[in-house]
Amino acid sequence: MKVSDFHYDLPEELIAQHPAARRSDSAMLVLDRRSGAFSRHGFVEFPQYLRSGDCLVINDTRVLCARLWGHRVQTGGRVQAFLLEPAADGTWTCLLRPGRRLPPGARVELEDVAAGGFVVTRKNPDGTFQVRFDAEDVFALMEKDGQIPLPPILTASPCRRIASVIRPCTRRCRGRWRRRPRGCILLLTCLPVWRRAGSGLRV
Question: Could you report the per-residue pLDDT of 82-94, keeping only the tens digit for each?
Answer without folding.
Answer: 999 999 999 999 9
